[in-house]
Amino acid sequence: MKKALKQLKLIISPIFYSLFFCIYLDSTSLYANIYDEINKLERSDLFYAEDLVFESLPSGIILNEEQFVLPVISNEAILTYQSYLEFTDVIDQYQKILKSGGWQEIKIDGELGIGDVSSEIIILRNRLMMTNDMPENRGINDIFDIFVEDGLKKFQFRHGITPTGVLDEMTKNALNLPIENKLRILGANKTRILNYMSGLGSKYIFVNIPGNYLLAVNDGKIEFQTKVVVGRDERPTPILSSNIYEINFFPYWHIPESIVRQDISKAMQIDSDYLEKNNIYIYQDYYYKDTVNPDYIDWYSDEPTLFKFRQNPGYANSLGVAKINFANKHAVFLHDTPNKSLYSDGQRFFSSGCVRVQNIDDLIQWLLSSNDSWERKKLENILNVAKTKTVQMKEQIPIKLGYLTAWVDDGQVHFREDIYGKDPVKNMNQ
After folding, report:
1. Which parts of the chain register pLDDT below 70?
2. Which long-range CB contacts under 8 A does 420-425 form with residues at least 24 apart?
3. Where are the domains of the chain?
4. What global pTM score does this model have?
5. Torsions phi, psi of 34, nearest 5?
6. What local confidence, expressed as pLDDT, does residue 27 receive?
7. What's the start-to-end Cα distance of the chain, in Å?
8. Is 144 helix (H, G, I), strand (E, B) or coil?
9. Phi/psi of residue 324, each to 5°?
10. For strand 221-231 and strand 389-402, is the pairing parallel, antiparallel, or unpaired?
11. β-pair partners for 84
């Protein structure tokens, strides 16, 4: 009987799946517009922002549309008292699940997808229904049908996992995280939201590091949102509050000593022409007058750290076309990048601490809109001229770099990997 049902399902599921998928996309608006055309550049011609590159990029990159999902789909700001109250509601929901016994562990080897039959699918259905990822009383218990697939996609989307609808190892581990751990994560992030709310004005920038996104908020509404790339675990982006005071167009990149030691020296050991290829020059001091011949430097010692390194402006500059400054002791900032392909990754922890911003021209327009007589045409002229220029903010805009591994948006709770190990539990996807 089960075999016959599976065969029947395999015949009819594509028809239902296509119809359901169209409805699903329309109702949830999961997919963002693709704003950037992937540049077909060689890695030898550019940096990963503050990072060095040793290999060549493929001549062309084909991206899955699902990789362009943005984590926030409503226009309601996250750092609000209403969001704080929604956290309370979600915690109550999860506490009820805990009191009822929690959820069973899903035990499978390999993957499960549409048309598969397994007793573990019964457990999967119950797990997805507990957190409202799929409705009750739909489909056949032990068959992986379109209802299970759709529910799994919603779960994956909420957890920052590419929504394939396939029960793979990463998704299984996220599903199996104990309810007690989920409650600890929710409690920690409820407190964080309350702390981040303090000192905010009506207009501000919020960067959620684990979520890999930036929000521009005005009067409680999200007016602009975009993807960001943040620091990898060994070079984390700091948590801080500050004020944006200026924007540098076509900036020089003054390369930090730590990157000279950790990256530049290694690159020069591999390719003696690396600095020339990337338009980087060595100077005796901060006056940047007297250049130093790289052939006279011992790249296998600490000698390179005695000099100053600077990358000239241009479209291949590691900071891209613009750098947004705010006061902080960590020497981090927001900036563009020539390597647009990194935004296609679901989890974007690649930088050395600074925050790379997708569609930075739109963010700059939003920031400068309060400047006297500012208009989009001025921004376009600056970018067309391609000369180094600094624009001061008439009104400094508050910015918070925060750390939310869970948040509530449009009634749905989202979870992200605790990349820096700050939650009171172990990594949720391990």
Report:
1. 1-75, 345-346, 426-430
2. 420/209, 420/210, 420/233, 420/236, 421/233, 423/184, 423/185, 423/188, 424/184, 424/185, 424/187, 424/188, 425/177, 425/181, 425/184, 425/185
3. 1-31+111-167, 254-311
4. 0.76
5. -85, 110
6. 36
7. 37
8. coil
9. -110, 120
10. unpaired
11. none
